[in-house]
Amino acid sequence: MPSRVIAGTALHTPTRGRFEALEDVLILVDAIGRISEILPRDHPRFAEIKAQAERQGNLTELQEGQFLLPGLVDLHIHAPQWPQLGKALDAPLEVWLQRYTFPLESRYADLSFAREVYSALVETLLANGTTTAVYFATIHLEASLALAEICLAKGQRAFVGKVAMDDARQCPDFYRDASASTAVNETRAFIQSVRDRAGEEDPLVHPIITPRFIPSCTDALLEGLGKLAEETGCLVQTHCSASDWESNFVQERFGATDTAVLSQFGLLRENTILAHSNFVTDEDLALIRQKGAAIAHCPLSNFYFANAVFPLRAALDKCVRVGLGSDISAGHSPSVLDGCRHALLASRARHSGIDPHLPPEERGLAGSTISVAEAFWLATVGGGEALGLPIGKFAPGFKFDALVMDLNAHGSNINWLPDLDTIEDVFQKLVLNATRSNIVMTWVNGAVVARSSAAQMRDDQAKQ
Predict the structure, then answer these.
(1) Which of 123, 203, 342, 369 is deepest in the core (most CB within 10 A)?
(2) Shortest CA distance to 164 belongs to which of 103, 105, 232?
(3) Does the record bear Chaperone in its keywords (predicted)?
(4) What residues pair up with 72 in beta bridges, in sequence order?
(5) Which phi and psi (to 5°) does residue 50 adopt?
């Protein structure tokens, strides 16, 4: 028998741009949190398995107005910037880092401060449906390990990176690695420590090699981290072509694009996560695809710092792996569903253009839009493919990372009319209108890791 059986209707986008409703099914989850079977209502053992699971206390049955969505994947989060969310967005990137961000991140030398912030962050993201998170931490070894430990304790699937940054020309004296060798050695120690804590077999939390971005790293550090990636098989994350300033800086220093430079240093690898990538060329996209790397599209923070709209449609059409990133705190929303909405808006801005003084045919780049189903695919399957993980959809062999969405939740913004709305209408309303209040339960790896207060109250009443 399965470890857990979930009865209800599940909505997902198993392939890019294709919505699918699994109506009135049983999802069977095994002891390691993996979907073993999905049974339609006309399956000969449907009633038997459901009744047996109910007798054994292993059945979760969705109520009227409740639907399952896959867990959301956030490919780019700056965990230490959580206290900065919703403020300090008044300066260009190069000023923002020096004025606000580096001083804040330097505070994580205080381990008690780090634990307090990181605990609140992980709890909030789980409540907002982020079941898989890719984190930049800070240069501090112990605080970065604390973030990994908190993700493990709270049950969030995560990739956690101790940030490496050593170039005195771009990093302040109070916040940088002492040397390239120190940064590489501490990254190596961090990788081993996380693996010791998470276990070697199918770990929930992974270390990830994290050069902040090319301007903050010396050649020696970039070279050392590239060799470390080859040695350990660790994934890599960094920023790529994030703004005019950053892209121009790299061109002036190396005479090449970020993508080409990262490749030269061995940092553009299978499942490398490149945040932003707004100024990538066609040659860059071809190289990213060839290497099996992926782009974390961060549409909200791009509006603040990139000075350009990422060519999402072009990347997708070239079969480059792409997922979504919130880019906390340069992005001021912790919701990946908001990321879907921002991605849709960014694609329409790129398609339609922004200058009303130009004729319509000259105003934008036609053919740049994405659909709601594509946006949600980016937030789920796309993110999973970027990381090389079986997550993001409901299928045998995939991890059961899921959200119970309640259209009737207290405080819901969704107006649901069963006689008028099709099941696809419901899906679109969830993607475009759902808020934290609609997420009443969050599952990771087959375990419940977050419940809304209303859901918790119902559970407590049921036990009485």
Answers:
(1) 342
(2) 105
(3) no
(4) 130
(5) -65, -45
CA distance 225 to 247: 21
**Total number of domains in the chain:** 2
Same domain, 300 and 407: no
Please, what is the Cα angle at 282 between 318 and 328, to 5 degrees? 80
Tokens standing for residue 350: 């790129």
Is 217 in contact with 166 (CB distance < 8 Å)? yes
418: DSSP letter = T
CB-CB contact of 333 with 341 (8 Å):
no
Kindly tell me if the per-residue pLDDT of 464 is higher than 70: no
Task: From 362, 387, 412, give the residue that closes a domain.
Answer: 387
Alpha carbons 385 and 315: distance in angstroms, whole number: 15
pTM greater than 0.85 (yes/no): yes
Strands (E), 117-259: 130-136, 157-161, 163-164, 205-211, 235-240
CA distances from 61 to 7, 24, 158, 442, 460 (A): 5, 10, 28, 14, 16
pLDDT single digits (tens) 9-56: 999 999 999 999 999 999 999 999 999 999 999 999 999 999 999 999
| Domain finish residue from 354, 370, 387 | 387
Residues 242 and 99 both lie in one domain: yes
Tokens of 80: 């230490």
Q: Are residues 314 and 458 in the same domain?
A: no
pLDDT at 462 over 80: no
Q: What is the CATH number of the domain that holds 406?
A: 2.30.40.10
Residue with tokens 């009744």: 51
Find out whether 70 and 401 touch, Cβ atoms under 8 Å: yes
Q: Report DSSP letters for 106-124, one per residue.
A: HGGGSHHHHHHHHHHHHHH
433 and 412 both lie in a single domain: yes
Q: Is residue 157 located within the same domain as residue 293?
A: yes
pLDDT score at 307:
81
Same domain membership, residue 361 and residue 275:
yes
Are residues 367 and 400 located together in one domain of the fold?
no
Query: Which residues span the domain enclosing 314?
Result: 72-387
Query: In one letter, which amino acid is 421?
Result: D
Structure confidence by residue, pLDDT tens digits, 249-266: 999 999 999 999 999 999
- Nearest Cα residue to 181 out of 228, 145, 250: 228
Q: Are 300 and 327 in contact (CB under 8 A)?
A: yes
